[in-house]
Amino acid sequence: MGSISNSTEYMGNWVCGFEWSFKKLCHLIGGSSNFNTPSNNVITELEAYSIQIKNIIDNTYNSNDPSDKVFPVIFHLILDDPSVIKPSGASEPDFDVLYVLGWVNHWFSGTGISFKGVDIEKDNAIMTTPGLNIIEGSTISQTRYMGARLGNVTQNYVTDGVALDEIKRFDSGPLAKHTYNGGVLFEYIQDNYSWDPTKYINIFLLNRTNSGVGKVVMTSANPYLVDLSGNYNRLSIGVDLWAIGRAYDSTITPSDSYSADVEYTNFGYSYSGTTSENNLTNASSVSEGYRSRAKTIAHSLAHTLGLIHPRNKFNSTDAQNLTADSSCESGNFLFSTLTNFNNFYNDGDADTNAVGNYWQMLDYTTGLETDLCTSETILSLSNNMMNHNQFTGAYESENDVNPTFTQNQIYTMHANSEYTITSFDAGLGVTVSNYGILGQILYNSSTVLTTNNAAEGNTCLERSSFNSPLPLNIKFKQNVSESELSQYNQAKKIITKIVKTLS
Amino acid sequence: MALEIKLDIKTANNCKNLVVQDITGSYDALENPKGWGDVNLNPIMPTENLSIFITVYHYISDVQYTTTIQIPESAYYTSYPFSNSVQGFRMSIPSDVISTAIANQLVLESGVNLPEEYEIVQETLEDNIYQIVIRVSGGDVIVVSEPVVFKSTCNMKKDVELLLTSIDTSCHDCDDLDFDKALLAKSLLEGLENN
Questions:
Q1: How far apart are CA A114 and CA A101, in angstroms?
Q2: pLDDT grade for A115, boundaries at 50, 70 and 90
Q3: Inter-chain contact B108–A428, Cβ cutoff 8 Å?
Q4: How far apart are CA A225 and CA A301, in angstroms?
């Protein structure tokens, strides 16, 4: 591997780590020594991916709506203090997967896509609490290289947290001294604690993600790049627990209504009085994710389903100085013409907007922003689920902000569940086309979900009928010659005609 | 020697199913050195290790398609003469499963639109040329059978038989041309069956 200038520093103040994973996977796949420039083969792959998605949308969804899809989800809750999810003092956790998924499915309502907590564990046992796997943080340790001075150091989840990536600050040159992020690498957690990624969408709820100057609290990856990387564990999502929504409050009885004031939400965790309280990286206070209402999870899942940020830039150094010219018209579509990761990119969707301060936590006093492309005043905070941050709205506007997906985004998510990857099957000795990772998860969903009932919070969905489409498109050697086929068909035609005439 | 899967392929009498049967037999050093077991692949394995791929050469509205499908969850349509063994398996795949799989496959293939004329749920197996391949995954060993071509004539045969019985050969006043046409159909059918 060549010189990699990957460092979490370039994430600036961003809260979503999608660009980080995108850039890193491109580098891994392409083998380019320059971390900022995707190699030609990666560009070619992304173009082919983009065309295939467009073909599915144009050719298939044009006449038939995509089938409804229910994805099996497992939440891995990694705790350094068990009392974090038992703030009421009860023996059972106050954290409720159904409640969280209810909100996630609320944000996805109308898309034909929903998520359901899995019923069957990785070892085929029926789960006591569907969709929830609790992991004791102290059991997670990793010995990793942290520079010439420190050498190999054992990092523990409880004492050191989670490192979004290895290097915090990258210095080039012969005397370079990189600065390392402390903690267990998120990739280590993905690789060692994900359940079979061809059957489950894994979501890790963490309590401390170290990302250097960045404030990344949610990380997810593009499925096609994950397919190309050959490591399906890279699809696993990471979200800081404190960022999923309002913490437990004993004085509040949560409302079942998704239109209820945010004051009446309760996500069943609390850091108050726990050993974790003062160790929350990226959070200036334990209530910073107050208004998220699981939008961090929904946003991450949408990335997993192939969506990208509406308008964005990989390196946020000068993001605040972007003008309409630099941000919109000159932006390249990420999957076809982007040749430099320092350039601004767009999502190719005319119905999404660019917004100012899109990379930061949306902790504003107003929900109105100026669209950088049109100069129009828009409700920018969360008018689209893929705008960069889905945490907060102003106190006054929070219940008016219901982030949605555009029609193209909805179709794109469906198409990402149906694309195929072509490869050579040594066993068959032929080139085969397999479903991508999302198609595989859907195809295998019947092995981890025991019920066909609608997913929580989304009353219009049944489990996908995805078991009927085929997992393989295999081009076997054709043993039937054209003349043989022609003769057969001619004879069949004559026989059919005679039968029809004389009957 | 390695396992060489031999297949017998036919349609069910009512033309509703495609029947694929393993006739490989057990290993015998002299009589059947490419059979199941012994030095070759052990047939004791989970049934899901068996996959069937069918390439169908078919026409829709006079346009020729070559569609390869894998029958999903083929274990549902398979019976086994020996417990815990796939040896001698017999797959009886309903026509609607095959036609639905073809439709799904056509939808999935880029640049192909499923013609409206295509009947997705077919009651009988359409008379077409079918090429069948069986794959067996036994641990690290994967065995793929040689493709076997099967020309289905079941529906045509039923129609021609019905036609012949409906024509009164003792009728001297009847049009001989009809009889000749029926015989032509019979002759063509036999040609297909024998090739």
A1: 9
A2: very high
A3: no
A4: 15
Domain ranges of chain B: 7-152, 154-195
Query: For an interface test with A, which of B108, B133, B175 has the most A Cβ atoms less than 10 Å from its Cβ?
Result: B108
**DSSP notation for A409-444:** HHHHHHHHTT-EEEEEETTTTEEEEEE-HHHHHHHT
| Contact: A480, B129; criterion CB under 8 Å | yes
DSSP assignment of A316-338: -TTGGG--HIIIIITPEETTTT-
- Closest among B70, B42, B61 to B135, alpha carbons compared: B70
Interface confidence, given as ipTM, is 0.89
**Shortest CB distance from B104 goes to which of A59, A468, A480?**
A468
Which tokens is B34 given? 């490419």
A470 vs B104: CB contact, 8 Å cut-off?
A: yes
> Hey, what amino acid is at A135?
I
Q: Provide the token pair at A304.
A: 């997993």
Q: Whole-angstrom Cα distance, residue A382 to residue A389? A: 7
Q: What's the whole-number mean pLDDT along residues B159-183?
A: 78
Quote the pTM value: 0.69
Cα separations in angstroms, A238 against A74, A217, A234: 12, 8, 10
Closest-approach residue (CA) in chain A for B136? A427
Question: Nearest 10 degrees: CA dihedral of A368, A371, A372, A376?
Answer: -110
Q: What are B126's two structure tokens?
A: 């359409």
Nearest to B143 by CA among B34, B31, B20, B29: B34
The two tokens of residue B170 are: 């003792």
What does residue A149 show for φ and ψ, rounded to 5 degrees? -70, -45
User: What single-letter DSSP state applies at residue A242?
Assistant: G
